Amino acid sequence: MFTKVGTITVKVSNQDKALDFYINKLGFEKIDDQPMSETERWLEVAPPGAQTHIMLSLSSQSGGDKTSFTGYVLHTDNIENTCETLKARGVTISHELSTEPWGKWAQFTDPDGNDFGIWAPAW
Fold it and tell me: pLDDT value at position 64?
């Protein structure tokens, strides 16, 4: 099942300015920078050596079209198995498993309607 809390989201108004601040002011490292759409990137930063990363997400676009997306992304070693296990336990998968340029992705919803991301490497 889950191995760690991998990514949390900080909503920002400009990803480039935020990246500059986190890298040059806070001393974080850029972990990942991949296109998600024409206007937004999957942009992760973290303190050196940290297990949990911060995704710098445009405040108007994080989580696709889900207004209840929490921004919390759980990492897993085997996303296919994790999604099947969650379904078997009665968990609602709100975004079926897909492969994106930045990894394999799915989302699930808790009983209050909060959406959480599930991520695994694409390889």
Answer: 47
